[in-house]
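Translate structure to sequence.
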């Protein structure tokens, strides 16, 4: 007499899980193929003028995780400055030496 939950040697499943449906699921499972990573999301930027030269460059998106308290503080800082959180971050990057043009600082929110 088998105990409930004892191993079923033929299918490799336990007696409790040895129902007809679970056997079919074991047989029908195929190796999972990983999907290739999607390319970076880009969208075309209108012509950018940098020191008289015309540059066309696609935009790229960055996701940033931060503590909620930092998010609230950044949001309040942007509100007080009358700009966006993106604007605050771009100005901070510019202060650290990243090339940031006037067009990069334009508020692109829909009006």
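Result:
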């Amino acid at each position: 007499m088998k105990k409930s939950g004892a191993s079923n040697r033929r299918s490799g499943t336990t007696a409790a899980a040895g129902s007809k449906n679970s056997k079919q699921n074991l047989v029908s499972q195929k190796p999972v193929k990983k999907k290739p990573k999607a390319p970076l999301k880009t969208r075309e930027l209108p012509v950018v003028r940098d020191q008289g030269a015309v540059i066309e460059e696609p935009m790229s998106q960055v996701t940033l995780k931060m503590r909620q308290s930092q998010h609230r503080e950044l949001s309040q800082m942007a509100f007080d400055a009358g700009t966006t959180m993106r604007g605050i971050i771009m100005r901070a990057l510019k202060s650290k030496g990243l090339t940031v043009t006037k067009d990069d600082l334009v508020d692109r929110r829909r009006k």
